[in-house]
Amino acid sequence: MAYKTSVYLRAKHQLDERRRAGEALFQQRHSEVLAACPALAALERQLAATGAEVVKIAARGENASALIAKLSQENLALQKQRAALLRQAGYPEDYLENVYTCPVCHDTGTHGSYYCGCYLDLIRETAKQAIPASAMLKKCTFESFDLSFYSDEVDPALGISHRRLMTNVVAFLKDYCVDFSHDSKGLLMLGKTGLGKTHLSLAVVNRLIDRGFNVYYGTAQNILERLQKLQFSRGATDDELNDDLYESDLLVIDDLGTEMVTAFTVSALYNLLNTRLGNGLPTVLSTNLELSELERTYSQRFTSRLMGSCDVIAFYGRDVRQQKLQRG
Ligand SMILES: [Zn+2]
User: Regarding the domain delimited by 131-327, which CATH topology (the fold level of the hierarchy) does it fall under?
Assistant: First the structure.
């Protein structure tokens, strides 16, 4: 359970950029403030000297707690004087301190011997940005899923209302994320367009990335295009593609059935699903097609492999996108 190497590298790079920007801003503000109040230079020399003195005493291992306490007090008094000087010159007291994105670690990414929370957030954020639908990913969470678009009248054919049914689906998927491991089954989401399959797939992606899993999401069309490109560049290898499709902890293939179906795509999909199953890795698929159409389009072999390895979730309701347009 870990993100792709490229995610860590990108996050580290971004952290370094933040730190450099913070340092540059500090230098710029520092020169500006020194020009406006030259008395600050002497004060800073005194501050540095008391700080150095404390370090020296501590390094000698002397039991000089009284002396250290005295120096610390001096240091505190000098800091107050500095704040007063800045205030008099018309600057905020923390003008030289709030230059970093993270006030805790000053954009170093570590805090004591631990990673700082800001760095862990940045890594998660970078993992989400690496997904092609990252803008949509941000919006599509369990929290933003609106059950009011589903009728609370009992559907006679089902004996339950669509809202109750979708409430159960959301609860099931939340549990799926909590319990997720390589032993989890895959999911097959069935239902017409606009019933929330993409939204809830992305909600799962969000949760699992937050939990530290390497998850890849793409439409069937995106994924097959990548596979096709590799097929045409004979002998070439694509580590990124391998990480995303064959080794990710979870692969989500959205909108199966909207891509152009050829003999290549049918066999590529089967091989992809089969390889992941062989590696003990689950896959989530969503489609507007009915099971019989799925069989006709991708073969019975593919469909039965899918049914054998996935829990099936059926979506019901009225097209949410249409309803949103009507609500304006
Ligand atoms: Zn931090």
Answer: Rossmann fold (3.40.50)
